[in-house]
Amino acid sequence: MTELPLQTRKKLGLVIDLDTCVGCHACVISCKGWNTENYGVPLSDQDAYGAAPSGTFLNRVHSYEVQPDTGPAQLVHFPKSCLHCEDAPCVTVCPTGASYKRVEDGIVLVNESDCIGCSLCAWACPYGARELDQAAGVMKKCTLCVDRIYNDNLPQEDRIPACVRTCPSGARHFGDLGDPDSDVSQLVADRGGVDLMPEMGTKPVNKYLPPRPKDQMPDIDVLAPFLAPVATEAKGFLGWLDRTLDKI
Amino acid sequence: MHPAPSVIFFSVFSGLGFGLLFWLGLGWPSSTGVVAFVFFAIAYLLAVGGLIASTFHLGQPKRALKAFSQWKTSWLSREAICAVAALILMAVYGAGAVFYNQHWRVIGVLGGLLSLGTVFTTSMIYAQIKAVPRWHMPLTPLNFLSLSVAGGALLAGQVTWALWLIAIAGGIQLATWVIGDTRFAASGTTLASATQLGGIGQVRAFEPPHTGTNFLLREFVYVIGRKHAFKLRVIALLLMCVVPVILLLVPFSHMAGGLAVLAHVAGVLTARWLFFAQAEHVVGLYYGKR
After folding, report:
1. Which of A6, A49, A78 to mutate: most B Cβ within 10 Å?
2. CA-based nearest distance A147→chain B, Å
3. Average pLDDT, whole number, for chain B?
């Protein structure tokens, strides 16, 4: 049933560090790779080699420019996937019971054989985490790599979501956010992790770590004063040329 | 939001059909025989035709029966159940009126209320969605219900009722637009709240995730026609409200009545198109779009 569980035994989710993400999109590619070959129907592409390619992705990396009142603008790369919300509005709207939130670990999943592709869950999600696969006509979303994290056939180090496993800058962390002593919960506490769109009341499990404040670089360049222009009046040939051109 | 023709036709025509069934269920008009047959045929064509149209936007229509199962939480599921219950009850009531010259009042009133309930559940599918602030308000169900009851009265030939109800529906439509225009700002959702980067400074979408478009942009960020929104609102209100009222005020003829129905339906279709085309989903913020 599409009733949300009152409580889940674990709150598995991701912690995404906006300070260290370099915007390489490796998580996007590894996600698409793993989820095309494993759980559920493949993530299809339309017109992949044509003029207007588009396709289904469970994880997309945006980039934002943030302009402080003073100082240079900052560029923040912003990976976004399902946040596995505690109050997931996508689950309760589902008319068929295809969407559900697991009691054991809080992962929000779609049972594709029950999905009628009405897209209502995608409408209900404020984050754009769900995409209707155009080839299969069923809803696709992040599974938190449920087919990796419990997979005994994989070596221990691979039993984490593909995006976390592949991230070269260590900007993605996976763990139980319901356990206050877990590494991810500690990280969120230390770095002041935040919820996206808290006003939507979705209580996302995934947390985002805001970029650390930039260093304020004082003017310590000892050579700078010596590099100031010395000549105030141009002399010689260039001086003559400057004066002549001014007259024309 | 993408104004899918199937959903627009579904919500307008099923709204009209169930509106007509509501009046028939109340026994206004309390016709029998062939006349009743024509009334019920029109109502069922509109209501069932609309329901069939709504399945065209499904990715997997062959599994549509599963949509009856989640009535505990899903307004879409409640709509499906309510619609079928209303159609079955009204079929029994209609059979009585057409074949047995009987009006089984209890069944009729119950079926009529379920017909209105169907329109209400349809409107709640939209009104429940917090991520589309323009829809997420009590005026959305009021808008759908008032149009359905007014259009039903028009089709049922209840001239006096239709006059008043169309005027009221026009007023509610106007309020829906005016208040709806303020809803996105009132929701408090901005690119700053979406990214939580507002503490550092002014946030601007710099680079989208992909060079091409995607499902989200096609479905939720629909900007075509917005620049004509004001003109379309005027046209919609003239057609759905002003023209039918004038036509109903002149001495009744079937010609004028037919024209009133056509104008009203065209107006409601325009308004319903705007209902989708003007609705902005908060996910557009992530793409620097509205």
Report:
1. A78
2. 25
3. 92
SS3 A66: strand
Do A66 and B129 lie within an 8 Å CB cutoff? no
- Residue A18: closest C-alpha in chain B: B197
Q: What is the domain count for chain B?
A: 1
**pTM for the model:** 0.90
CATH number at residue B261: 1.20.1630
Q: Decide if pLDDT at B100 tops 70.
A: yes
Confidence band for A56, pLDDT divided at 50, 70 and 90? very high
Using CA atoms, how far apart are residues B272 and A120, in angstroms rounded to an integer?
18
Residue environment code for A27-36, b if the CB has 16+ CB neighbours within 10 A, otherwise e = bbebbbebbe
ipTM score of complex: 0.91
| Domain boundaries, position B66 | 5-287
Parallel, antiparallel, or unpaired for β A45-46 and A54-55?
A: antiparallel
H/E run at residue B94:
helix B75-99
- How far CA A74 is from CA of A18, A26, A69, B206, B233, in Å, comes to 12, 21, 12, 11, 42
Q: Are A110 and A83 in contact (CB under 8 A)?
A: no
φ, ψ dihedrals at B40, nearest 5°: -65, -35
For residue A69, the chain B residue with the least C-alpha distance is: B201
Q: Residue B235: how many CB atoms within 10 A of its CB? A: 16
